[in-house]
Each structure stands twice: as C-alpha cells, then as structure tokens.
Design brief:
about 0% strand; mainly alpha; globular; 8 helices; about 70% helix; single chain; transmembrane helix
C-alpha cells in the first residue's frame, strides 16, 4: 500500500502542491486525470491524497459541527488524537478493505482489467470532493458524496477499460460503504429527504 517508486511512468508528482493540483484536476477533468495520472505500482501519492482528504473532512467536522471528542480536562488532546488516528490508521486500513472489495467485484465484471495498485489510486482520488464532507450542511455532504461516486465510476471505466454501465455496477458496493457510510452520505441524504418532506408538508 505504501510502495513509492522513484520514477513512475505517468504517475503523480510528490508534495503538497502536487496533491492540490491532483485535487483540482480530478474534479475538473476526471477522464483525462485518470487516463494520465494513474500508474502501475505508484500507490503512495494516492494514499497520501486520501489521507489529506480525510484530514480536511474530519477536521472540518470537528471545527464546524462541534463533533470533536474530548478527553478529560484536555479539550485539545482528544480531537488531535482522534484526528491523527483517523488519518494515519483508519483511512489507510479502510482504503485497503475497500480496494479488496472493489477487486472482487471487478473480477466478476471485467475479465481484462488493470491491477490492484491502479484500483487503489482510483478509489483514493475519487474521494476528492469529500474535502467538504465535514461541513454541517446535509445538502453539501450529499452533493460531495454523490460526486465522489461519479468520479469512482469514471475512474473504474477509464483505468480498467470497461464501459460505464459495468463501472457503475462495480462501483455501487464500494461507494455505498466508502461514501455512504464513511463520508456520511446516507445520513446526509436522509436529512435532505426529511427536510424536503417537511417543506412540502408545510
């Protein structure tokens, strides 16, 4: 998962500026990004990208939604520790598990597909919209998770050389867990639906 090859052919550059550039590119030109920016065995930039997204998403949730845990009389220690554990431990492990699920699904749908490392990168970069998943506005969280699902479909189709119908079917289980539960898209959808029903009833 942390393999970092010295000179990837067509892979991503390194550093904060490269992460910011990748974020902008995958949001604005996903087909071109996945075609040119995903390289075999070059998983580390994707992993660090996902960790950055989780850092912003959870950090925003702690600051804006007041969801930061507290530890005793140390109001700063709890949030910092929880954020570090989420970014450094939970995010990479979750990515590992989601990639394993995605590969299993792809095996049944796309016989001639790319490798595991490319799938790691697709899932990681598809999380780009979720930098704002911590904003306490359900509609914003819903939009960013739906856009993440769209990016995942595009990435699977481009990188694994399949059509969008199969890519959509392949992406549903992984997106349901990652975007629906991980980034709280289902919770946001429920709140948006409830608010819409109340508005119509009024």
């Amino acid at each position: 998962m942390t393999q970092w090859i010295k000179d990837p052919e067509g892979g991503r550059d390194r550093g904060p500026r490269a992460i910011a550039r990748a974020w902008f590119e995958v949001l604005t030109a996903p087909r071109r990004f996945f075609r040119a920016g995903v390289a075999p065995a070059d998983q580390a930039p994707g992993l660090f990208f996902l960790m950055s997204v989780v850092l912003f998403a959870e950090g925003g949730r702690y600051l804006l939604a007041g969801a930061a845990p507290a530890v005793g009389s140390h109001p700063v220690a709890g949030p910092v520790l929880a954020l570090l554990l989420t970014v450094v431990l939970v995010a990479p492990v979750a990515l590992h598990l989601l990639v394993a699920l995605q590969v299993l699904v792809l095996m049944g749908l796309v016989p001639d597909r790319a490798g595991v490392s490319e799938t790691v990168q697709v899932l990681a970069y598809a999380s780009a919209p979720c930098v704002v998943a911590g904003v306490p506005i359900p509609a914003v969280r819903l939009l960013c998770t739906v856009y993440g699902f769209v990016l995942l479909v595009v990435g699977l189709a481009v990188v694994h050389g399949t059509n969008y119908r199969r890519a959509t079917v392949a992406a549903i289980p992984t997106a349901a867990i990652g975007f629906g539960y991980g980034f709280r898209g289902f919770e946001a959808a429920s709140k948006v639906l409830r608010a819409s029903v109340e508005l119509l009833a009024f």
